[in-house]
Each structure stands twice: as C-alpha cells, then as structure tokens.
Amino acid sequence: MAADAKLKDAEELIKKANKLTKLSFFKWSTDWSSATALYEQAAIAFKLAKQPDKAKDSYERAAEGQERLSSPWQAAKNLEAAGGLAKELGKFDEVLDIYRRASSLYGECGMPQPSADALAKGARALEEANPDEALKLYLDSCEILEDEGKEQMAFETYRAAMSLYLKQERFLDAANMLLRWGLAADKSKAVHSQSKAYLSAIIVYLYAHDLKQAEQCYNDCSQVDAFANNEHCSCAFELLRAYREGDAEGIKHAVKSSSLISHLDHMIVRLAKQLPSGDVEALASNVDNLNLADDDFT
C-alpha cells in the first residue's frame, strides 16, 4: 500500500508539472520554474515507488526545465541522476547520450572538473555493455583536463582507461595510455607516479612479446631524469637484462624479488607475475641490439 501511495503521489506531481508546461487556448504562458520543482519532486517519488523508468524521465524533464531557467549546473546534476537510472534499466544508448549532455552543460558553466567527471561516470557505466564507447568517454575526459592543465586530476581516469584496454587485450593502446599518464605526471611533478607509469608500460610491452618496443620504451624514458634516477628504472633494466640473456628464471626472479612491481596497479602486477609469457630465447635472438648498458642510469 505504501508503494502504491507513493506512486500515486508521483503521478499527481507529473500531471501538475505537465499542465504548467503546456499552452492552450485559455493558457498563453508556461511556468517552468514551478514545473521544474515538481518534476524533481516526482523523480524522487518515483524512485521511492521503485519506478526507475518514470524517475529517469522525470529527471530528464527537470533537466530540460533547469536549462530553460538558465541553470545548466542543476540541469547537469539532474541528467547525471537520469544517467544512473538509465544504466540500472540497461538503456545504454541513453546512458551515453545523457552523460555527454551532462558534461556539455558543466562545460557551459566553465567547470572542467565536473565536465570530465561526468564523462568518466558514463564510461564506467558503459564498460561492460559498450567498451569502445566507454574508452572514447575516458579519453575525452582526460583531454578536457589536459587542455585545462589539470592533468593530475585525470590520474584515476588514465588508470581506468588503461585497465579497460588490458581487459580488451589491446596491449599497445594500454602501453600508450601509460606513457600518456607518465607525461601527465611529469607536468604535474608527480615523479613517483611517472616512474610507475613508465615501468608499467615496459611490463605491458614484455607481456605482449614485444621486447624491441620494451627496450625502445626504456631508452626513451631513460632520457627523463625523473625516471633515470629512480629505482623503477633500475627495476626495468634488470628485467630487460634477463630478457636479453634469454633467462626465463632470471625474469621470474626479477619480478618476484621486486617490491616496486608488487606496488604497481593490480592489473600490471597480474601481467608481471605471468612473465615470461613467450619464448624468451626467440625474443632475445630476434631483437636488434639497442646497446643497453649497466651505466644507462645512475
């Protein structure tokens, strides 16, 4: 009975709101201010009545009202609530559209952080149903913060995108995302995060059986003092040396004995524990000599 009463109350609120937004022969003006408040109340009431579809629609109507009232911030908040309900309902095409609209509205307010966060929320909601679109949202979220010079605020999004690439077995993309994260960390003066990102990228290349690219990555990253003078660089060198020597046991030992590797992202640790994942001797014999030397770092 309580649920029925809540549902009846919600439907009455919607009726009142709709009347305020419609013109007729006898009614020549609308009252979106009052209607928007009613739509927001109805959305809450429908949620309590366990009617997520109607609650979602009410939040979207409330968002429309807030836009008409020149309140993009409140409109975006209502859309985020609608997006969460769209995910619950499995309406993933709507999830994508709703969170993009919310992000755009936050952008109109001059608020890059909430704008980027809205895209990241949408990406998390879409990871299983539509990973390709989720990745696009993650990348767009990062780009917003990078354009604003707020790279440090994107660290969790870099991690989420990298993890999703790994789940999709898109190892080159995952490594590139780690390098992008490392560059962002460099700009943010986050030396520890930068070094972890570079070591992680090398591990991803090795897991993908690309020793040549792993060594090239090591050499490129070693040009950055923050990495070259860091223990993560030494760890990468020891790992690569074992690969160059075709020493499978040495690779396992380098991973197992490293406290640095054990403190990387859990998905990277999982890959590292499976090294070597290919024919080490074949990799060592096929790769060009990139002249790794013990004094490559100090």
TrEMBL record:
Keywords: ER-Golgi transport, Membrane, Protein transport, Transport
A GO CC annotation given for this chain: SNARE complex
Bilayer topology term: Peripheral membrane protein
Transmembrane feature ranges: none
Cell location: Membrane
GO molecular function, one term: soluble NSF attachment protein activity
GO process annotations (BP): intracellular protein transport; vesicle-mediated transport
Family: Belongs to the SNAP family.
Protein name per Swiss-Prot or TrEMBL: Gamma-soluble NSF attachment protein
Species for this entry: Adiantum capillus-veneris
Lineage, uppermost ranks: Eukaryota, Viridiplantae, Streptophyta, Embryophyta, Tracheophyta
